[in-house]
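Need the bound structure for NDP, inputs here:
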Amino acid sequence: MGEPALSDYQPEIGCLSIIVLGASGDLAKKKTFPALFHLHRQGFIESHDVHIFGYARSKMSDDDLRDRLRGYLTPCKGCKETHEEDVSKFLPLIKYVSGPYDADEGFLSLDEEISAYEMSKDDKGGPSRRLFYLALPPSVYPPVCKMIKRFCMNKSAEGGWTRVVVEKPFGKDLNSSEALSTQIGELFDESQIYRIDHYLGKELVQNLLVLRFANRLFMPLWNHDNISNVQIVFKEDFGIEGRGGYFNEYGIIRDILQNHLLQVLCLVAMEKPVSLKPEHIRDEKVKVLQSVLPIKDDEVVVGQYEGYTDDPTVPKDSNTPTFATMVLRIHNERWEGVPFILKAGKSMKSRKAEIRVQFKDVPGDIFNLKSKGRNEFVIRLQPSEAIYMKLIVKEPRLEMKTAQSELDLSYRQRYQEVIIPEAYERLILDTIRGDQQHFVRRDELKAAWEIFTPLLHKIDSNEVQSLPYKPGSRGPEQADKLAEKVGYVQTHGYIWTPPTLSAV
Ligand SMILES: NC(=O)C1=CN([C@@H]2O[C@H](COP(=O)(O)OP(=O)(O)OC[C@H]3O[C@@H](n4cnc5c(N)ncnc54)[C@H](OP(=O)(O)O)[C@@H]3O)[C@@H](O)[C@H]2O)C=CC1
Ligand SMILES: O=C1O[C@H](COP(=O)(O)O)[C@@H](O)[C@H](O)[C@H]1O
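Answer from helper R.:
Posting the output first, comments after.
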């Protein structure tokens, strides 16, 4: 007998319409449509019961949209069919409807197109499923949701559903987010709303619960007795690249920390949930967020890379941070006294995202370990997914000499045959299957905004100033000083290199 599946999903029947609103945009072309392509290629959504609609204000034909997307549909390794065959089966499933986001006519036409497709599939009016993906700026969520509710809900008497996927950042601060939640909450039940945070779809983020709660090894260690500090880091080696209009209004804290890094923090810090049911997991995440203490002014460094305001869409006097480091402190029995250092930056030296759990010094040290560095447990989310543990070992030679080394689980080497799915692929599949585990619940979102809103207001009013840093650097040097001040000890001279396959 095989292992019991962790998910108890039962396949549903009824034609599926996936509607990408904002189909002309950046996210749609780079992430949403490519994810749908890969789901289709792997048979998770099938030509005989799915149709995909793009909707936006831009005037385009079906073929214009298809041509625009073609270059973003990347070939996969080890596919049965050629890439051209996969693409030629996928693109005809896409239709484009143009219209405004706040007026009836566009949504009436959209509904007509969806209904015509549903009738063509099932003239007896069987169940139908409608998934609306809002790849749009949050400012247009309220009118779009109103239009969907008025004109585009699933109408089948035989059942089915209507679901709405909304992107981050959901609001700009606590009040605006709550207002948005209330507006959308008046139109849809919580069970119909999927607040997507694509970091929750990353392989190693999904692995966190398993690592923590399926391994006895970590249970006694995962607390303030043993852990000195935790760093959750996101770096990109490029700047805002034409997204200045969006980015300058939001900044790095709303773009990355309030959502992606905070979600990761929850999974690192939460208690064991009662079960793997989405509500049980989300209950535990909310408890962590509610235990976070107000951020102290002297435990924040924000920065802006030099040249950021050269972007024509960015005002010359912008104080918007493109970099932030801050310390979050969780006031509970497990984590009292352990700083969680969150760090995110654009235009940095390298691109990576990782969780670094640094352990305390060994008591009663007989090896003079201070100079060698501490034990660290590192979860490399990207690139080169890996989990490694930095250890002190005896150097293999005659003399007794210690050195830093590592126990290393590098995914590329260990899982050579496996293609790790893109985060969006996984999460869109979850929305089709109705699994909300990896989506943000309303109370979670509220607690997340409560943590950052006071600081965001200080930055917006220039009370907290962004420090300049050189593009391609580590960010302002004050950030490293802050991490050091709260207890992070950097190991000099040790660099983890992902093992190569040829070096076996
Ligand atoms: N791009 C990315 O990598 C990521 C984006 N996101 C989130 O996804 C959402 C969409 O992002 P992205 O695709 O980059 O955004 P875009 O700026 O590309 O906007 C998407 C589409 O929305 C329409 N639009 C843009 N601005 C406005 C406006 N002010 N009023 C009405 N419609 C507008 C445009 O379509 P038209 O004019 O044709 O109607 C545009 O093509 C955002 O919430 C973003 O935070 C999340 C993760 C990553
Ligand atoms: O949400 C966002 O994420 C991307 C980074 O995503 P990743 O999966 O490549 O790490 C970031 O570039 C963008 O600014 C932000 O909106």
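Comments: The mean pLDDT is 92. The pocket of LXAUTJHC (ligand 2) is lined by residues 198, 236, 255, 353 (CB under 6 Å).
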